[in-house]
């Protein structure tokens, strides 16, 4: 068992870690915070605003000093930089402004495509950003968050659960995943969007069954550029993978995901993904999700039928050169 499973157990959550819904409503939380006269977790008034919400919340949660470093296995610098960049109040305003701009883009794209806004889910891709940012985004009403590395996401999901125990939070895995991480991922992820092989699907199905939790929502990541290095299931193998997932106890096939190929026209790539999605739905009527579109191309994705956009940079800011 990994550290984070043990930590989840220590934190009094059931074996499944953070996968269960808390049943809490975001609005309850926001109202409570508002009644308390301060945003978010906030003891900030008496600290002169130099300490981030995150550090304080972590300290209240019984961890020393600046919070996370000891138990997160080497993400200290990412976290430290991000925490230093942000102060709770300023950061919340910055995120609120970015969220409003992204929302406006999604609304315009839906209107242009003759689609309803509620046909498109917004996933905030929070990789490399601290749990305190996720907490602030939950205060702003977001519920769905995506990560691409198990070792970063597991501890972050736990931290968010400590920072915002009332918030309804759903975590989505969108990154390349090795089979040996399956047991760890199913503890924090509500959905895995990056299933691209039968071997991985099999490992996830086994992990879910071992954990004894309800079926895990999965999307098949389709490769639109036939470049195996970038992940994704080749289109020629997609039907076989879908059939395998549908028959494997423990997995719930919800649809497809793709990343537009580098240097190609995203509209053309998303049109091909839409065809793949239609074909998949013929055999698997429940597989209705089409996850496509990121900060740079969400309009094209929505125009081609995306039901889910994954937005990192436009919401949270740049990740720097070293980050994925
Ligand atoms: C990082 C990432 C995103 C978000 O990309 P942005 O361009 O920062 O919006 C979306 N999908 C996947 C799979 C990612 O890894």
UniProtKB/TrEMBL annotation:
<feature type="compositionally biased region" description="Low complexity">
    <location>
        <begin position="58"/>
        <end position="67"/>
    </location>
</feature>
<feature type="region of interest" description="Disordered">
    <location>
        <begin position="1"/>
        <end position="91"/>
    </location>
</feature>
<dbReference type="GO" id="GO:0030170">
    <property type="term" value="F:pyridoxal phosphate binding"/>
</dbReference>
<keyword id="KW-0663">Pyridoxal phosphate</keyword>
<comment type="function">
    <text>Pyridoxal 5'-phosphate (PLP)-binding protein, which is involved in PLP homeostasis.</text>
</comment>
<dbReference type="InterPro" id="IPR011078">
    <property type="entry name" value="PyrdxlP_homeostasis"/>
</dbReference>
<dbReference type="InterPro" id="IPR001608">
    <property type="entry name" value="Ala_racemase_N"/>
</dbReference>
<dbReference type="InterPro" id="IPR029066">
    <property type="entry name" value="PLP-binding_barrel"/>
</dbReference>
<dbReference type="Pfam" id="PF01168">
    <property type="entry name" value="Ala_racemase_N"/>
</dbReference>
<feature type="compositionally biased region" description="Low complexity">
    <location>
        <begin position="8"/>
        <end position="19"/>
    </location>
</feature>
<feature type="compositionally biased region" description="Basic and acidic residues">
    <location>
        <begin position="76"/>
        <end position="91"/>
    </location>
</feature>
<feature type="modified residue" description="N6-(pyridoxal phosphate)lysine">
    <location>
        <position position="127"/>
    </location>
</feature>
<protein>
    <recommendedName>
        <fullName>Pyridoxal phosphate homeostasis protein</fullName>
    </recommendedName>
</protein>
<feature type="domain" description="Alanine racemase N-terminal">
    <location>
        <begin position="99"/>
        <end position="319"/>
    </location>
</feature>
<feature type="compositionally biased region" description="Low complexity">
    <location>
        <begin position="33"/>
        <end position="44"/>
    </location>
</feature>
<comment type="similarity">
    <text>Belongs to the pyridoxal phosphate-binding protein YggS/PROSC family.</text>
</comment>
């Amino acid at each position: 068992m990994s550290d984070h499973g043990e930590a989840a157990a220590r934190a009094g959550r059931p074996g499944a870690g953070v996968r269960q819904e808390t049943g809490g409503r975001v609005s309850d939380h926001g109202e409570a915070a508002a009644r308390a006269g301060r945003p978010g977790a906030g003891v900030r008034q008496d600290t002169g605003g130099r300490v981030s919400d995150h550090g304080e919340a972590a300290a209240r949660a019984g961890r020393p000093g600046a919070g996370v470093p000891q138990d997160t296995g080497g993400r200290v610098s990412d976290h430290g930089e991000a925490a230093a960049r942000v102060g709770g109040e300023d950061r919340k305003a910055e995120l609120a402004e970015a969220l409003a701009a992204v929302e406006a883009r999604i609304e315009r794209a839906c209107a242009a495509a003759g689609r309803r806004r509620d046909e498109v889910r917004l996933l905030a891709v929070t990789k490399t950003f601290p749990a305190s940012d996720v907490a602030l985004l939950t205060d702003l009403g977001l519920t769905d968050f995506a990560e691409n590395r198990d070792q970063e996401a597991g501890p972050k999901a736990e931290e968010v659960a400590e920072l915002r125990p009332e918030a309804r939070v759903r975590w989505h895995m969108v990154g390349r995943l090795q089979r040996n991480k399956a047991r760890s991922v199913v503890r924090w992820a509500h959905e895995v969007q990056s299933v691209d092989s039968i071997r991985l699907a099999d490992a996830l199905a086994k992990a879910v069954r071992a954990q004894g939790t309800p079926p895990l929502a999965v999307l098949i990541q389709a490769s639109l550029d036939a470049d195996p290095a970038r992940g994704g299931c080749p289109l020629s193998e997609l039907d076989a993978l879908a059939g395998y997932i549908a028959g494997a106890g423990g997995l719930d096939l919800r649809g497809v995901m793709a990343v537009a190929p580098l240097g190609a026209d995203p509209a053309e790539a998303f049109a091909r993904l839409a065809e793949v999605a239609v074909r998949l739905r013929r055999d698997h009527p429940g597989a209705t999700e089409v996850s496509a579109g990121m900060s740079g191309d969400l309009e094209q994705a929505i125009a081609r039928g995306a039901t889910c956009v994954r937005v990192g940079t436009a919401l949270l800011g740049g990740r720097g050169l070293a980050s994925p």
